[in-house]
Amino acid sequence: MKKPPKAFATKLVHGGTPEPRVDGAVITPIFQTATFESTGVGDPRGTRYIRYNNTPNQLALGEALASLEGAEAALVTSSGMAAISTTLMSLVSPGDHMLVLDSLYGGTYDLLNGLLARYGVTNTPVSAEDIDGWSDRVTPETRLVYVETVTNPLVRVPDHPRIVEFAKTHGLVSVIDNTFATPANFRPPEAGYDLSVHSATKYLNGHSDVVAGAVIGRTDLVETVRATQWSLGGSLDPHACFLVRRGLTTLALRLRQQEASALALARALEAHPAVSRVSYPGLKSHPDHARAAALLDGFGAMLAFEMAAGESAAERLLAALDIPVVAPSLGGPETLVTLPVRTSHALVPEAERVALGITPGLVRCSVGLEDAAELIADFEAALS
What we know:
single chain; 384 residues; Aspartate Aminotransferase, domain 2; Aspartate Aminotransferase, domain 1; seven-stranded mixed beta sheet; 12 strands; globular
């Protein structure tokens, strides 16, 4: 057997490749079949079947993702929300309690305070600025802590070593959404987190043509999630697995180019009088700049900025831009802009959005692979 790759860039290309290669195929073929011939009797869940998440394309992608984050195991799901919901429903029961970061993706917020709340699972929002105070919010029913590597949409960077230490001290499972950072910039299992979840729709696939998710971490916890997935059915089809695996090969190259453009755009926006604030960890003005530089291998390609004249100015900006696409999602080759109050965080109550700084004039931007100078010129023309 060949030695497994060690360098991150090499893992992106070769991680999860079956040994020996399937009929010598350099790229793992698409196994476009829902089921496989049974080879014996026993546990029916030992049968290879797409819903059981044990078919060749699913396993190859899972192995590649586990390798990238330095984890024991991984599985793939039909969407990022499938990864989040299946994970949380695997780890809590009615009457249990969670500590959750107070600034989370709106879909996660809705899951926590909608479906899970209806089933008797409670949560307490906690601030990344007050980790010392989290202990006061732990109850005998608290089972886990849930955070994001880089928060959506304000791109704040919590103190992850302290969060990991807190979870271990209190015997809590630690779960982190690593979508914005990607394994190229942060590897949660190596940092001590128990599980990381991803919307693989975003940077892992990187081409805006697949919806997928992933759960990565400790083998026992991943297998617990897998058992729940058998019941919920949120598995990923072979062709989508193939596309995500193909996208992974260029993750590092794509992200470094996007980061360079994001920093240049952030600096231009920060200097523009029509913009009152810019949130991008690569700026020295960002409150978490030093922490991001210490913890992450790159500052990412997500930024948010506030229009000085508020919501109407943000609307005019989006209408005037030529290159960016006004659309939700992120992480693709095209620059995407959106107003979080109307898309990603529309389900969060207005009072909570305002308290977090998610205002009607806030614009979230996923910087793509266009020419940076042309992209900045487009923004400056639209701002004018």
